[in-house]
Amino acid sequence: MTATGGLIATVAGRSDLGRTLDVLYPPNSTLVTILRSFGARVQQEVQIIDLGEDALVPDDFTETELQTGMWWRHLVAGAAAGAVSRTCTAPLDRLKVLLQVHGSRISNLGIVSGFQYMLKEGGIKSLWRGNGINVIKIAPESAIKFMAYEQIKRVFKSGINRELGISERFAAGSLAGAISQTVIYPMEVLKTRLALRKTGQYSGVWDCACKICRHEGVKSFYRGYVPNILGIIPYAGIDLAVYETLKRVYITKHSPCEEPGIFVLLACGTTSSTCGQLASYPLALVRTKLQAKVIPKGGSDSMIDLFKTIIETEGPRGLYRGITPNFLKVAPAVSISYVVYEHVRKLLGVEMS
Length: 353
Hints:
Radius of gyration: 21 Å
Membrane topology: Multi-pass membrane protein
InterPro entries: GDC-like (IPR002167), MCP (IPR002067), MCP_dom_sf (IPR023395), MCP_transmembrane (IPR018108)
CATH class: Mainly Alpha
Oligomer: single chain
Pfam families: Mito_carr (PF00153)
Keywords: Membrane, Mitochondrion, Mitochondrion inner membrane, Repeat, Transmembrane, Transmembrane helix, Transport
Family: Belongs to the mitochondrial carrier (TC 2.A.29) family.
């Protein structure tokens, strides 16, 4: 998996409960073999934790984990970590959406003025608008992505027991991400509408869904779908490529027996995720504007026309409005996710290797 949607989990628990090293590693295993195997599990764990963005290349679980059911414990721990971290960083996420949709040279809306607007318009509680649906969608998205990824991997392997190459993982992860996004995309639209709603506009998620369906039709639940799907390719591709490159550079500069530590992998994951976000952010911004149904006067609601309008009125910088709060939430999201994952992992009985 890539570091995209979720970073660190821990060096923990990629073995079954009650298993010994003799079971995990045959008697003829060398120290190098054990270290490499252990390092591979660290890399797998490093991507479970939430960065505030949805992971596009899902978790790679071992055959043992799939057979024993240990995989679901990691997914549950990761989902819990994601729910808590998203809730804690929700004000920054809502600010990002606000700046993407309403920020412009004319409005002069910034980070401080954006927070002031939200507090004045709806009070402290308004900072968490849209967070409920953002947390709820973690479970179905993770489950669909995981199932799709496993099926696609089987097709790629063609019955041969082997590890997928980087390009195959990218293709499998992108396809799985596209499938899960297609299924849960209406929830993405609801999240954006709820984040942008004014006090009293909607009584809740169901009321929002009903009003959109009644006044705009079912098609509105897929507004912005095209740039969203197109964004998967640069995000997942660059994220995976940068992550693997940085990891390879580290390995070439150190002993072959020395696998990257958890904090090295965290740094690699954060850097790769940042690069992926930079590459795909313009598409994410256009997607959000389309979801919010914000169309310039006399303008078209097509993706291409919206790109042209933004560049003509605001210049290239306009394609990156809202990216600052997006980056500001990375550090707290990773830290909170790590702590929560560790606690939930222990509660579920996933032991350290």
